[in-house]
Amino acid sequence: MNIGEVSERAGLPPKTIRYYEDIGLVRPLRSDNGYRAFRESDIHKLAFLGRARTLGFSIEDCRTLLGLYEDETRESAQVKSVAKEHLTAIDSKIAQLKSMRKTLSHLVEACQGDHRPDCPILEDLAKGS
Amino acid sequence: MNIGEVSERAGLPPKTIRYYEDIGLVRPLRSDNGYRAFRESDIHKLAFLGRARTLGFSIEDCRTLLGLYEDETRESAQVKSVAKEHLTAIDSKIAQLKSMRKTLSHLVEACQGDHRPDCPILEDLAKGS
DNA sequence: CTAAAGCTTCCAGTTGCGGGAAGCTCAAGA
DNA sequence: TCTTGAGCTTCCCGCAACTGGAAGCTTTAG
């Protein structure tokens, strides 16, 4: 199967698929004309990667997860460990964003937003809080 | 004042300060020896930038905000507009992360995390939800 | 006088692709 | 059969916002 059809079936842009081959996440065969020839297993892998990326896993995490997926001798504890670390990272990002959000929303509420130059937002940035 | 002292006073790494000069956010003078010579106003600007970055504003937003800060004829509505857009962006990032978090936490809870290979996390990635 | 610290510029790498150029292949219509 | 257009290939640049490191000059401390 050519990359265009694979792109639709896996839900990933052709550019992304080529990139994943570049970095060794998938290894499609090649036809005589030089075109990539994807097997069903490649499509399955690509869809797996797409979903892992949707959950926010880094490419390196995806590589690890894919490796575990294909390793019959894996221990689920290994998978859980990767997922838990990622969950922790997500939590700290959320916390950071919420902190920004809190400060920023206060400032936005305090700002009149009219034609006059006086602005609590700029004042806060200038003086620090 | 040299970059080292400015770095401490503004709370930004020297590399970052040089980068901000590169992209035209600050324009320190130069001493005869070629060293950057920062004025108080430069330090003030850098601290302003540091705080804006802490609130998650992009560099281009920072450039805009700094411009407004130095423009006596600004209207606070302009500042508020930039801040509100950023707030919206933060909100959607939070929403996206929470969505990831929700799915991922369910999966992590469902996974035994023991020595056996069976893993709901991998199963979900393989099949989609 | 020397060594270390601090400054300079420049270049490469990070993450995860996207855009676009140049060029080959293939499928369909006149 | 020829041609056109779509689809495929590789390659390299660019994004955001820096960080790290090399090579080399200046200043400072002992």
From TrEMBL, chains A, B:
Q: Where in the cell is it found?
A: Cytoplasm
Every copy of the HTH merR-type domain together lies at: 1-68
- List the molecular function annotations (GO) for this entry: copper ion binding; DNA binding; DNA-binding transcription factor activity
Q: Which UniProt keywords apply?
A: Cytoplasm, DNA-binding, Transcription, Transcription regulation
Query: Where the protein is mainly located, per its record?
Result: cytoplasm
Pfam families this protein is in? Answer: MerR, MerR-DNA-bind
Q: What is the species of this protein?
A: Litoreibacter meonggei
> Which BP terms from GO are recorded?
positive regulation of DNA-templated transcription
What's the protein called, per UniProt?
A: Cu(I)-responsive transcriptional regulator
GO terms under cellular component: cytoplasm
